[in-house]
Each structure stands twice: as C-alpha cells, then as structure tokens.
Amino acid sequence: MDRQLRDKGLAMRKKVLGDAYVEKSMATADAFNAPFQEILNEYCWGAAWCDDRLPPKTRSMLNVALLAGINRMHEWELHLKGALNNGVTRDEIQAIIHHVAVYAGAPVGVECMRIARKVFAELDAKP
Hints:
By secondary structure, the chain is mainly α. It contains 7 helices and no strands.
C-alpha cells in the first residue's frame, strides 16, 4: 500500500463525503471489509480523485451521471451530496438528471429526481 496516496485519498474522501460519513465507515470496518476500505482510500480517492487533471466539481458531475447510468442509487445519493459539497448547483444537478434520463432511461431519471428532491428538502430543513 502507498501510505501517502492512501492518506491523501482519505482526506479527499472526507472533504467530498463529509467527515462523519467516512469516519463511520472506517470505524465500523471489520476484519472482512477493512482491507476494502483501504483500497477505496488509496485507489478510488487517492489515485482517481486526487488526480488534479480534473477538478473535484467535474469529478462529482461525472460520478452523478455514471452512478445513475449503472443504477446504483444508494451510491448516487451519497455522491449527490458530495457533488453539492463540491459546488455543483441544483440547476446543474437538474440538467445532469435530464441528460441521464435521455441516455440511461426515464425510470432512472425519475429515481434520481425523487432522491434529489429528498436530499434538497433535507438540506433546506437544516437551520
């Protein structure tokens, strides 16, 4: 394992997804899935997300579109929140969902809209 890349990835993961979510994922890891958490930190977040050729906002937009296209709605909701943390606007999210619906199908667009509205309502309800 490349410790420096892992640490850099862990920091990026926390920045995008939030400290609480990542710390919970790490704290609840057991002997079975702890190595996978390290793979995520080193490769997904370190090697991919810390590659500075694309800014985090662009990566978030790509993730939102790709996760919708492969219909991974649990991850989609998580990365929608991350996209908002990375400066993707609600208007941009709406445009992405419209694009996804055309290319990946209306049913996935409907599900993305449902989740986005839920997330926006939760955010709007926070003081």
